[in-house]
Specification:
By secondary structure, the chain is α/β, with parallel strands linked by helices. It folds into two domains: 180 residues, 3-Layer(aba) Sandwich (Rossmann fold), CATH 3.40.50; 99 residues, Formyl transferase, C-terminal domain (Methionyl-tRNA Fmet Formyltransferase, Chain A, domain 2), CATH 3.10.25.10. A seven-stranded mixed β-sheet has the order 5-2-1-6-7-8-9. α1 runs parallel beside α6 and α5 runs antiparallel to α7.
Length: 312
């Protein structure tokens, strides 16, 4: 049985830790330091730490991974597995295991290297993505590939649903990779094709522009569903747009006036005109400081009618 170390921090990484614990001897789990969370800002353990302690595993939480490089090297591990740890690992850490550090990345590398591959694959309208297990080197997601799996992106996927699908696929990929590595089947295939980046998300990335085509607006809503959430801004006011849907052929055509209401349908939402006479159904919205609402109920509360411009 392989002797392993796990690096991870958020909830997304927990299923990978459990898979690793079931298939190897986990010598230590490394996670980010505990941080204040919630309304009371009480210091809370990371999800990975909570899961590791429940499994009876040793947890390390250095401010910098390099601080424990010697300790990690002394464990005699065959392999480290990294999933959403949140920090770049330096050479003195990467040399701490016999085989190296295997990282799960939620894209088909070299596409969408960086911190937010799920969000940017949605925001840029991709129809296909996947998970890649690759060997870390000193670059940003540039190391050789052990294995990968492709997944389609559904029209109604958002960051939450797509991440769940990719996590499930990634856990299966990790299980298969561990079996291969234990049998001595180590693959280090160089990345091929054009690279692209998935940088850290900024709040400004989620600001919607209704003069853009509806498909582009829809993709932004899906991409930033979890954080920072897509929004419209006007005169210091904000309206969060939490769920949208593309129109069907039976829906009214646009008139060339982005922001105009083309239909208000109780129980469904409002059809809003976007750029180039395109249209988009707003299904769920949330006025700033208030609860989320069906978009039709929100519009009716403002006494808006077909032909009016979206107000909030």
């Amino acid at each position: 049985m392989l002797k392993t170390i796990f690096f991870g921090t958020p909830e997304t990484a927990v299923p990978f830790l459990r898979e690793l614990a079931a298939r190897s001897e986990v010598l230590a789990v490394v996670s980010q330091p505990d941080k204040p969370a919630g309304r009371g800002l009480a210091v809370a353990p990371t999800p990975v730490k909570t899961a590791a302690l429940a499994l009876g595993l040793k947890v390390l939480q250095p401010a910098k991974p390099s601080e424990i490089a010697g300790e990690l090297g002394g464990l005699g591990a065959d392999l480290a597995v990294v999933v959403a740890y949140g920090r770049l690992l330096k050479p003195e850490v990467l040399s701490a295991t016999r085989l190296g550090f295997l990282n799960a990345h939620f894209s088909l590398l070299p596409r969408y290297r960086g911190a937010a591959p799920v969000q940017w694959s949605l925001a840029r309208g991709e129809s296909r993505t996947g998970v890649t297990l690759f060997w870390l080197d000193e670059g940003l997601d540039t190391g050789p590939i052990q294995s990968s799996a492709a997944l389609p992106i559904a029209e109604d996927d958002d960051a939450g649903t797509l991440l769940a699908k990719l996590t499930q696929a990634g856990v299966g990929l990790l299980g298969a990779a561990l079996a291969d590595l234990e049998a001595g089947r180590v693959v280090r295939r160089p990345q091929e094709g054009a690279a692209s980046l998935a940088p850290l998300i900024e709040r400004e990335d989620a600001l919607l522009d209704l003069s853009r085509p509806a498909a582009e607006v829809h993709d932004r809503v899906r991409a930033f569903r979890l954080w920072p959430r897509a929004r419209l801004e006007r005169d210091g006011r904000r309206l969060l747009v939490l769920k949208t849907a593309l129109p069907g052929p039976q829906d009214p055509l646009g008139t060339g006036a982005p922001g105009r209401l083309l239909r208000v349908e109780r129980g469904r939402g409002i059809l809003v005109e976007c750029g180039s006479c395109s249209r988009l159904w707003f299904l769920v919205v949330q006025p700033e400081g208030k609860r989320q609402l069906n978009a039709a109920d929100f519009s009716n509360g403002l006494r808006s009618a077909v032909g009016d411009f979206l107000s909030f």
